[in-house]
Amino acid sequence: MKYLILIIILTCSLFSCDKNYINNEENSFYIFGKFDTISDSTKVFLKIQESNKIIPIDTVYIINNAFQFNGEITKPEVFGIYIDNIKGSIGLFIQNDSVFIDVDKNRLSNSIIKGSELNDDYLDFVKKSNEIISRTNYLFPLFQKARTENDFKSLNEINKKMEAIHQENISFVLNYAKDNSDSYIAAFALKTLLRDKSISVDTIASIYNNFSHDVKKGDFAIEILLYLESQEALNNIDN
């Protein structure tokens, strides 16, 4: 199995104490999940994201409100945990470290993840970006009202405000990618901007070139490299 050797172990005793019980072996990851209550034999699916594709890895069954995955990865990965008959998923960035998940079965996205510094960095980045983007929320009803009333002056003013917020978020993401060149999350951040035509290929290339060797081995950095190569090929055709 590519990048992953998955060994499934289920032991309810692992969840009887604090997360300090976890002793992670070198080059291995451990994912532990616990519910307040849930039916035994409920399926839990572990999936991985590679090149914008969600690939199933393995399936385990819940025993005594708990589940566990462990295995090996050669580089940071984006995992998704899905619970049978529950909408949504738990997304997490991990390296070879130990992760404890306090699962909120009513809303999986609210589950508490502990133990992965990489995932903490991801959540911090997303939070700060969302704080910027959320400032457009109050503008949407104003936009709809102006459009209904054919108020072109107001529409123009609202569009300018939305664009200013959009550009502020772009600046935040670019600066994050520049300032965290040894972080896998920097590559994730930069990849989110590839479709934005307001950002030059040279800007993307400059930030990518400054990434550390380890970051460049990750999937998101590889996607950025493929994008840069495709843009160079198009440029050669045009010339």
Automatic annotation (TrEMBL):
Residues 31-122 form the DUF4369 domain. It comes from the Bacteria. InterPro entries: DUF4369. This is DUF4369 domain-containing protein. It comes from Aureibaculum algae. The lineage of its organism: Bacteria, Pseudomonadati, Bacteroidota, Flavobacteriia, Flavobacteriales.
